[in-house]
Amino acid sequence: MAWRCELTGKTRQIGNRVSHSNRKTKRRFLPNLLNVTLLSDALGRSVRLRISANALKSVDHRGGLDAFLLKAKDAELSPRVLELKRQVVKKRLAVA
Question: What is the pLDDT of residues 74-89, one digit of tens each?
């Protein structure tokens, strides 16, 4: 399972661990990923996602999963979430 947020595309970063003597060795900075279940209002069902804590705050701030997906760039989303976004857009157009 990749260390990648399905909504924002955040992934691991590479850096240096620096000792007191200033020796540098490689290390990884991993995103704070959470397994969450979010509710889609347009589809009327819940969706399980593996997202970062920062993305969870962004979803809450934008007013839910559907609002987040409508504003999100397609390049950042995982293929599974991209399909979810297409379903939400299709359902919204059918209602309007």
Answer: 999 999 999 999 999 9
Q: Distance of CA 90 to CAs 34, 49, 76, 84, Å?
A: 28, 21, 20, 10
Who contacts 28 (Cβ-Cβ below 8 Å, separation ≥6)?
Answer: 12, 13, 14, 15
Domain ranges of the chain: 13-95
Chain centroid to Cα 65, Å, comes to 10
Give me the CATH code for the 13-95 domain, please. Answer: 2.30.170.40
pTM, 2 dp: 0.86
Confidence of residue 96 (pLDDT cuts 50, 70, 90): confident
